[in-house]
Write a structure and sequence with these properties.
CATH class: Mainly Beta
Distance between the termini: 16 Å
Radius of gyration: 15 Å
CATH superfamily: YjbQ-like
Order of helices and strands: EEHEEHHEEEE
Largest sheet: 5 strands, antiparallel
Strand content: 35-45%
Number of helices: 3
Structural class: alpha+beta
Strand order of the largest sheet: 1-8-3-5-6
Shape: elongated
């Protein structure tokens, strides 16, 4: 297993980590298999979506903030219930195929770390399963 460190700069943001993930795949000479990308944080997540146009990530951030506002009367006393809910919706991980030493992604796809309670120092775990 490999670990990627991420430093977020805003309370809510999607950070494209595709290049970092590709670098780990290349450095480990992972050729053919399945890569599991996992977020061990209850207020963060992993998603694969369009990375060619940064406005897509901004739209996702904006829509989640509107759908799940920070300022509701949640029962959780730490004041970040909205972050936990967003994390549950996005999910804590995703699979990506690896073939011939590279990620198998669509033309416009990228891998994103989703921060919902930052800024923070975060970790993403990568587990490669050879086929």
């Amino acid at each position: 297993m490999e670990i990627i460190s991420i430093k977020t700069t805003r309370r809510e943001q999607l950070i494209d980590i595709t290049a970092k993930v590709r670098e780990v795949v290349k450095n480990n000479k992972w050729e053919d298999g399945i890569l599991y990308i996992y977020c061990p944080h209850t207020t963060g997540g992993i998603t694969i979506n369009e990375s060619a146009d940064p406005s897509v990530a901004a739209d996702i951030e904006d829509t989640l903030m509107k759908l799940i506002p920070r300022s509701r009367h949640y029962k959780h006393i730490e004041g970040n219930s909205d972050s936990h809910i967003k994390s549950s919706i996005i999910g804590c991980g995703s699979f990506c195929f690896v073939e011939k030493g590279d990620l198998v992604l669509g033309t416009w796809q990228g891998i994103f770390f989703a921060e919902f309670d930052g800024p923070r120092n975060r970790k993403v775990y990568l587990k490669f399963i050879r086929s």
